[in-house]
Amino acid sequence: MMYSLPYKTKQFFFVLIKLSIVVAAFYFIYQKLTKNSELQFSVFIDFLTKNDAFSIKNIVFILILSFLNWFFEILKWQNLVFPIKKITFKNAAEQSLGSLTASLFTPNRIGEYGAKAIYYTSNYRKRIMLINLISNLLQMSITVILGIIGLSLFISNFNININLNSLFIILIISIVFITLITFGIRKNKFTIKGVSFEKIKDFISNFPKNKIRLGWLLSLLRYAVFSFQFYFLFHVFKTEITYLNAMTAITSMYLLASIIPSVFIFDVIIKGSIAVYLFAFLGINELTILSIITIMWMLNFVLPSIYGSYYVLNFKLPKNDN
């Protein structure tokens, strides 16, 4: 015998879930700031106070860069969703920032796929998850292309000794591994939520090319903004570094951080460790680098997720439409 919960009870549990997501996100932020093994929060605050680096002018400019970072991301989402459903910029902002808050504490922000999909009725959700995959692949392609260029220049400029034989072996193993996975997926008719690998491939290959190109351009603009923001923070801390040297290290850092398997909870620590290693070649002290990494995280993840918590708390399940 099927038993249906009363409407008010369902509403109560729905509100409880939304509150739990927001509380979990805020608790994660608190833990990350106060329990960071690499940079104690008290040391971080003391470092900022002693440097007295943040004038009103600098703060405003840095916040504008963070705004542009998410402006391009929201615009990209609106553009990519357009082929299946027309949404406003406000809708795209709600979905992007709300899903950031809901996925902040999930491994590799995997929760973003489900969080964005739930803004749509069931007939859209599989395609929305695939569009989110396309969005992430576009951003990743920028990270990889610029990262390879930056890392090549970094290795060349600083004469870093790399065992080419070991690198070649790792490359061969990676290619074989990817080939075997791809073959296994096709052979076993791999599915995601009932969608086969072939359908996923067809969806991506048949996706409007003009939307892909615009999405790629917006990904590039977003990358340019947050990488420049990283460089500008060196200027704020009165650190002498040329733009070219900074960008080779920054692009290398983002590449290495993106290819190292990690849980998003440790993403800040991984970026910090890689950045400390890379910028040591440029003679920049560890405390400055770790402080910049923390500020970047607060500006581009903490602030948007705080704003996104408003959308989570006001979220309503979509009504069926045609």
Automatic annotation (TrEMBL):
TM helices/strands, residue ranges: 12-30, 54-72, 133-155, 167-185, 214-234, 254-280, 287-313
Superkingdom, natural source: Bacteria
Record keywords: Membrane, Transmembrane, Transmembrane helix
Record bears the keyword DNA repair: no
Name the record gives this protein: Lysylphosphatidylglycerol synthase domain-containing protein
